């Protein structure tokens, strides 16, 4: 695995670029100057043989401008309606900008449910690969008009990480209106220092990210760091950089020390484990005892009913659930063999007792090791 920025850049033949609302908007609407510069940069990368998938925010911000609104609405229905109004302007802005370079874009609207469903996931993936083969740039956004949970809980930082995994990208570049990750909020602290490289994500790095979102977007620096963590577990490096800076992508691919580079984990998840951990929305939580936690962390064991102490949420067989240790620290995500009601009846029992309690026994394990990804606190909440 390469150990320096230039080595990561040189091997990046397919890159996912996420453009945030903070950099794409100006005076309450779309900033066409930034969009034109970004599109020109992407065209330049394509001329160098780099395949680019663009994940773009900005639909709601664009809709606000068209509707004459000054503040992001609070109700879900109004957010959905605003996104519907703004999405056409967003894709048209990219159409015009890419046309200046003689390039074509394709709009793809997607929801987290499309990632949960394996067939739709593979269909979306194949469509993206076909567009790249044709030299067309996919412009991906959450389908806000139909995706209730995506507006309420999701953000395009999270989506960009999922797309990077889906497309087997070599690099994720998250463009925002800040120069990268600082050791403290530079908007409030003049002595804030830009962190150039993050070798390993830990609690100190997470604290630096904070939690504040922009006024027109849902994702703050914390969500960008979370996205970097997700792709790092897939073996993909990530860069957070200032997308309002002219030529930022060209500078990055020229090897300049721009933004914050997040190094990938040496032991990456396989595609299926990453899909279990991050693509399937968790429907519940299981709290386990110390013995079960050790068995999962150190010995590579499955989760048996005897180790479960508490079950929350409403889930059925095949749903993903978050596994917490007795101190409430997340250590894994897995696909359960039993529903929430069934788990509550058999938790604390031996596998041999399942049938006598339920009247049947589908599996000895609540979650089999093959359907579990050890995350140690790296996934989203419910």
Features:
15 strands, 2 domains, Carbamate kinase, 382 residues, 5-stranded mixed beta sheet, Archaeosine Trna-guanine Transglycosylase, Chain: A, domain 4, 8-stranded mixed beta sheet
Structural overview:
The chain has helices spanning 5-10, 21-24, 32-47, 59-67, 76-99, 112-116, 118-133, 148-152, 156-166, 203-209, 221-232, 248-253, 271-279, 290-299, 340-346, 354-358, and strands spanning 14-19, 25-26, 29-30, 51-56, 105-110, 137-142, 171-176, 197-198, 238-242, 260-262, 284-288, 308-313, 320-324, 330-335, 372-374. It has 16 helices and 15 strands. 48% of the residues are buried. It has an 8-stranded mixed β-sheet, with helices on both faces. The protein has a 5-stranded mixed β-sheet with strand order 12-11-13-14-15, sandwiched between helices. Strands 2-3 form a two-stranded antiparallel sheet. The chain has 2 domains: 5-273, Acetylglutamate kinase-like (Carbamate kinase), CATH 3.40.1160; 282-374, Archaeosine Trna-guanine Transglycosylase, Chain: A, domain 4, CATH 2.30.130. The protein has 382 residues and is an alpha/beta fold. A hairpin with a 5-residue loop joins β13 and β14. The radius of gyration is 22 Å and the shape is globular.
């Amino acid at each position: 695995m390469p150990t320096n920025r230039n080595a990561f850049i040189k091997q990046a033949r397919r890159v996912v670029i996420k453009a945030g609302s903070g950099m794409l908007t100006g005076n309450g609407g779309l900033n066409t100057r930034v969009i034109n510069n970004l599109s020109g940069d992407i065209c330049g990368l394509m001329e160098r043989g780099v395949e680019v998938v663009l994940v773009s925010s900005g639909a709601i911000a664009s809709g606000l401008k068209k509707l004459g609104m000054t503040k992001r609405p609070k109700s879900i229905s109004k957010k959905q309606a605003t996104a519907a109004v703004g999405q056409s302007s967003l894709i048209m802005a990219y159409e015009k900008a890419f046309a200046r370079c003689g390039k074509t874009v394709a709009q793809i609207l997607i929801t987290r449910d499309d990632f949960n469903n394996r067939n739709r996931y593979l269909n979306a993936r194949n469509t993206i690969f076909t567009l790249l083969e044709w030299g067309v740039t996919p412009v991906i956004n959450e389908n806000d008009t139909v995706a209730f949970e995506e507006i309420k809980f999701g953000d395009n930082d999270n989506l960009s990480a999922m797309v990077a995994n889906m497309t087997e990208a070599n690099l994720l570049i998250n463009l925002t209106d800040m120069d990268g990750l600082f050791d403290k909020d530079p908007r409030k602290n003049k002595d804030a220092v830009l962190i150039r490289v993050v070798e390993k994500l830990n609690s100190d790095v997470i604290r630096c990210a904070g939690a504040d979102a922009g006024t027109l977007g849902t994702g703050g620096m914390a969500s960008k760091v979370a996205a970097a963590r997700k792709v790092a577990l897939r073996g993909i490096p990530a860069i957070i950089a200032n997308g309002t800076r002219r030529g930022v992508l060209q500078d990055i691919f020229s090897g300049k020390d721009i933004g914050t580079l997040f190094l990938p984990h040496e032991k990456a998840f396989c595609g299926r484990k990453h899909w279990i951990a991050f693509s399937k929305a968790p429907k519940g939580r299981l709290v386990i005892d110390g013995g079960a936690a050790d068995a999962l962390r150190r010995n590579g064991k499955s989760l048996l009913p005897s180790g479960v102490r508490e079950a929350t949420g409403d889930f059925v067989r095949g749903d993903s659930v978050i596994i917490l240790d007795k101190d409430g620290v997340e250590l894994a995500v897995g696909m359960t063999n039993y529903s929430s009601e069934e788990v509550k009846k058999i938790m604390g029992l031996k596998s041999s007792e399942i049938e006598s309690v339920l009247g049947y026994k589908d599996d000895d394990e609540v979650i089999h090791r093959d359907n579990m990804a050890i995350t140690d606190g790296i996934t989203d909440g419910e």
